[in-house]
Amino acid sequence: MATSHMQRTGLTPKSNIIMTENIVDKPRIPLVAHVITDDDIGLLQGAKLQPINLNRVVKLLTDPHSVMLYDRHVNALQRLVRHYQKGFPMKDLVQVCKILNTCADRMPDQPLYEQLIVDILKICSYPFLKEKSSDELVYEQIVTESVSQLGYMMRVSSRDIRKQICSTLHGFYSEKPKNQNVQKHKATSLTYNQNIIENSDVSETLVKSLALIENELDMKLGILTVLQKFSNKSAKNCDQMLRAGAANRICSRMMDPDHSGQLLFRSVNILWNLLENGDPAPLSAQLNNFVCISQLRDAFIYQLTQGYSHYDRQLRNDLLVLSSLVATHCPNAPFIETGFAKQLTLFATFQEVKSHNALVKHLKLMQNHEDFELKKLLFNILISLSKDSTVIPVLSEGHLMLALMSYVRANEKTSGPRDWSQAQFEEIQLHALGTLCSLCPLMLEDYMICQGSTRLLLLLEWCTGSEDFGGHGNSYHGTGGRGNKRAQMRYCLRLIRSIVSTGQETVLQDLADQGAINQISTILHNATQSKDSDDAIDIEMQSDMLFILSCLCEGDMHRKELLGTQGVEVCIHYLRTDSRQLNSGLGHHRLLLAAVDCVWCSIIGCYTTEEFFMELEGVFLLIDLLEVCPKNMHNIILGCLLDLCENPKTQHHVLSWRGKGNCTAAHLFCEIWRNEEKDMGVQRASDGSIKNVSRPLMGVLQEQQGIVSLPATIPSQSIVDVSENMRAKLYSIFCKIGFTDLPGLTVEDHVTLVVIEKFMDLKLGEVWTEVISELQMEGVRPVTPDMEAIEAISRGIEERAQIVCGTQIELLEAQQNQDVLDEQEFYAEIRENYRQKEKQLSDWTDFVARTSNFQLLKAAKERQKLSVDASRVQNNYRELESYHDTELKDLHTTTFCGKSVDVESTSHNLTGGPFASYDPKTGSLRDRKAMKAPSNLSSISRY
Description:
Blueprint: H1 2-9, H2 13-24, H3 38-41, H4 54-62, H5 70-83, H6 93-106, H7 113-124, E1 129-130, H8 135-138, H9 140-152, H10 159-174, E2 186-187, H11 190-199, H12 202-209, H13 217-230, H14 235-243, H15 246-251, H16 262-277, H17 280-287, H18 290-306, H19 310-329, H20 340-349, H21 369-385, H22 392-397, H23 400-405, H24 422-439, H25 444-449, H26 452-464, H27 486-500, H28 505-513, H29 516-529, H30 536-553, H31 557-575, H32 588-603, H33 607-615, H34 618-628, H35 634-644, H36 648-656, H37 665-680, H38 700-705, H39 717-724, H40 727-737, H41 747-757, H42 759-777, H43 784-852, H44 854-871, H45 908-911, E3 918-919, E4 924-925
Antiparallel strand pairs: 1-2, 3-4
C-alpha cells in the first residue's frame, strides 16, 4: 500500500526518505504547561468547600448490604455536616433531600438519626450556594421541590426536628447570614429565597401540619411565627394558606389556653395579613361558622373588658375589623345564634343608653385614638349586620335608634373632660348620621318613636342658621365641611332622603306636618339667589332637596299647594340650567333630573301651580331641555310633558314653541320617534316608510326573543315593549295636540306621523298576532265562531298595515310630483330671465341703431305715431278743430318729452369716482384739469 501510494503521488522511495529526514531534523519549540491558580497565590477569600460524593452516602444508607451499618451511617453524615457547614450547593440538593427522607423514615426505629437530621436542617437555613449566575435559573425547580420537602418533614413526630424546620424556614425566608463566604461559590439572594418559598407549597403544608400539634403550644407558636412571616407581604403565600383553610384552622383555636398571650396575637396578625394580601371572599367564607364566630366573640369581649394597654386596644379593633369582614361578605353568618350581634349592640349603645349589664358596668371609652376607632367600627359592623332582616329586632331591642338619634343635634362648643373632643364628636356625629341613612328605612317604627322628623328638621334649621360654628372637616364624612356646617347639612339631607324614599305615608305626613316642605323650599330659594359658584357638594345637597320635595308632594294635592309659587320659581330656575354644564363632572345632570322630577311630582296635578308654571314659560323650558339633553333623559321629560298636556292650555304652548333653526315641537317629536325606532332596529325603508308589513312596529330584540308561551300573569313581549321605549308617550302627546294642522312638518315627518297616528291599531294587531301564535304553539284550536273572528282579525291586521303603508307611499309620491313641478317652475323662471335679458339686449341694439342711422330713426318715429294713432278711439283726431300739436318741431327722438330730462353721468372710469378730486394731504379739493376731447369723438346729439 505504501508503494502504491508513492506511485500515485509520483515520489520515489528515496525522495520520500529524504523529506522525512528533513521534517525530523526541524527544531521544536518547547511548551510550558504550568498554570498558577488564585488559590495557589492566596487570592481567594472564605472557606474552601470540600465536596464529597453524596451518591455514595445515599448508596450507603439505602444499599441492602449496608443498611444495618449504623456507625458508618453516622460517620458519613457527620462528615457531610462538617464539609457543608456553610451551605449546600444547588447541584447537590437532590441527594440531600434523599438523605433527609431516608433518615426521617428510619428515625422511629433508630433515634440516633434525630440529631443528624437537625444538623442537616440547620445547614438548610442558610441560602444555597451557586457556582454560576445561571444556577438560579437552571436549578430553580429543584430548589423549589427541595424547600417543599422541608415542609413535608413536619410528618416526623419529633419536637426537635419540627422546631428546627420552623427555624430553618424562618431563617431561609427572612435572614441572610453574615459569614457565608465560600470560595468559588456565592449565596443566593434573599429575594430569590422568598420567591422560592412563594412558588413552593410549604405554606400550605405548614397550615395542614397544625392538625398534628393541636395540643403542643410551643410548636403551634413556632409554626404560627413562620406563617406570620410568610403572610406579611406575600399574596401568593396568603392564597396558598387560604387554600389549605388557614383562616378556619387558626381562628377556631386562637382562644386556647396560653399564658404568654402570643397565640391570640399571632393568630389575629395572620388573619389580618390574609385580609390585606389575600382574597377576602374565601377568608370570610372560612370564618363563617359557629365555632369561628364564637371565637371572635370571646376574643373581642375579653380584649374589650380585660385589656388596658395600647396593644390590647389595637388587637381588639383588629378582631372587630375581621368580624366586620365576615358580616359584609356573609350576611347569613351566625352572629345572632352566637349572641355576638346582641353584644355588639350593647357595646355600641352603652354610652348613650344606660344599661345594667355587667359587661359595661365598669367599661369606659377614653379620648384615645383606639377607643375612637372602636366607636366607628361598632357602627360599621351594625350596618353590615342589618343586611339580615333577623338582626333588626335585636337592634331595636338594644335601643340602637335612640343611641344614634342622640347625635342628631346641634354641635356644642364645649365638651366635658371625659367626653369626646369637638373634632371627635363631629366625626362620630357624621358617622352616626351615615349609619342612620342605612338603618332608618329598616327601623321606621323606632324612628317615629324617637321623633326623628322633629330632630332632623331642627338640625337642618341649625345648619342653615346664623350660629357661629366652624367644622373641622376631618375624615371622609367631613369632606368640604371645614369651617362651616356643610357636612352636617349634607348628611342631614341624605338621612331625610333615605326616609322619604321609603314611601311610608305616616313618615311623609309627619314631615309635612312639621313644615318640611316650606323649610326646604325656602333653603332652595335662598340657594338660587346666591351669587357664589356651586361645587359638587352644593349640587348634591340641592339635588337631595328637590328629591325630598318630589317624594313629599307626589300624589297629594294639599302638599302641592303648600309648595306654592316659591317652589315653582325654584324649579324654573333649575330648568334654566345651561346644558353645557351637564358634562362638568359636578353633578348638574343629577340636579337637572331632580328638577324635572320635582316638576312632575310636585307641580303637575295642581291647578294653581300648573298655571303659574306655564306663566313662567315652564313648558317652553321643558321642550328646550328635550331638544338639547341626552337620550337617557328623554323618557322622564316626555312623561312630564304628557301629564302636563292634561291641561288644555298646554297645547297652545307646545304648538307655539320654536327651537333651533325654527324647529317646531311636532317636528322634534317625530325626530325623537325616528331615533327611537332606529335604536330599536325597527325595519324602515330609506324614505322612512314601513318595510315589513307583517311587523310594522317590531324591533330587533323583540324579533330575536320570538313568541314564547307565557302564563296569563306575565306580560308578553309586545306589552313589555310599550314600557321599554318612548313611542307610547309620543303617541299620547300627539293625541293631545292633534295629528293635523301641525306647523313645521316635513314630508319625512308626515310619513312618520302616519305610523304614529295608527300606533294603537298596529300595536293591537301585534298583540293579536302574539295571541294567535301562542294558541298555535300550544296546540289549542278555538271554537268555530272564535276561529272565524281570529281569521277576520288577522285579515284586518294586515289590511290596516297595508293602508298605512299605502298612505305613506301616496305622501311620498305627492312630494315627488311636487318636487317635479317645483323643478319645472324653477326652469321656467330661468327661461323667463334669459328671455328678458335677450329683450333688453335687443332693445339696446335698436337704440344704438336709431342713434347711428337717421333712416331707422325716422322709421321708428313713424311706427311710434302709428302706434299712438292706433291707441286712440278716433283715428282722424288730427283733423279736428280742437286738436293742438304738442310736439316740438325738428325733434329727432322717439321718446315723449316731459318737464324733466334724464342725463346719464360720466362713467367712473373717466372721472375716477366721487373722491377723485380730494387731496388727503391738504384736506381740500384738487384743481380741476380740463380734459381734451379725443379727435375721433363724434359730436353729442341732443334729444
